[in-house]
Amino acid sequence: MPTENPDSLSAIPPQSPVYHAQRADQYDRQGLIRQYEEKHSCRLVVMIDPIINRGVTLFEELIYDADPKEDLHLLLHSPGGNGEIAIRIARAAQSRCKELTVIVPDQAKSAATLLCLGANHIMMGAASDLGPIDPQFLINEEWVAAKDIIAAVDDAAEKVKEYQETYPVYASLLSDITALMLQQARSALDRTSDQLEEALKSNPDRQPQEVKRLKDKLKGPMIERPAAHAALFSADDALEAGLPVIKADPSGKQWQLIWRLWTKYFALGSKLYSGVYENARVSQIGFDEYA
Hints:
This protein has 291 residues and is α/β, with parallel strands linked by helices. The chain folds into two domains: 23-135 and 191-290, 2-enoyl-CoA Hydratase, Chain A, domain 1, CATH 3.90.226.10; 137-186. The protein has helices spanning 6-9, 17-22, 24-40, 54-63, 83-94, 111-117, 146-162, 167-173, 179-190, 192-201, 208-224, 235-240, 253-266; strands at residues 42-48, 71-77, 100-104, 121-124, 136-139, 142-145, 245-247, 276-278, 283-285. The strands form two sheets. It has a seven-stranded mixed beta sheet with strand order 7-4-3-2-1-8-9, with helices on both faces. Helix 4 links the parallel strand 1 and strand 2. Helix 5 runs parallel beside helix 10 (192-201).
């Protein structure tokens, strides 16, 4: 009776064939995560989601057993969300690592920018984008900037004041915006300066004078001047403001590996926007019920 070759068995996945086949894409991504970790001596975690309540627990799941003596790299893609939650995630990450590097393959806007500001390093490519610290509100399943909500209501009020007969038109157009939502938008904008400072302070290596210098430098381009949430803030802009940005070499091995991993998440299509939290051992995708 022939004996089995142990070497040939080592390549067989521990899962059953169907189970493994159904999750082949996940295992492929996690294989790239492990490859990155080996090459860069760190833990790599992935967060692709708006910055909302579920993020605190789901991010904690990725780092609960992290070694605080090890570097933590976070691949982040997000349109923004709640600034306070972003700061909580930044503090949680910093408490579990030696140094925190946030990697932005595409965009990390608004509250996600706040999360980046708490890092020791921010890695960005030529097309990577941060953005204005502008709170977002979910209206009819779309994220709307607080500035846009306030501007729309103020503009309607001026038009109705001048032409009272237009009231029914503007009342219909703004029917999804309540008085409470408007007040929340104004309050959220009033807190952005404090959030900027708290985000910068969440990096424990920053001294108070450095926090103040960066806050003064960033208030203009990130809070006061941008007229729209889509305003760009590139790696060069971030460097000019004094942020600890690493400009990735697009042909370098590190960015090539990051880009291969990012495109696998991009290929998830609509699933990408229901929440992705992944590391070498954990995979959580699709959490609309925990918004």
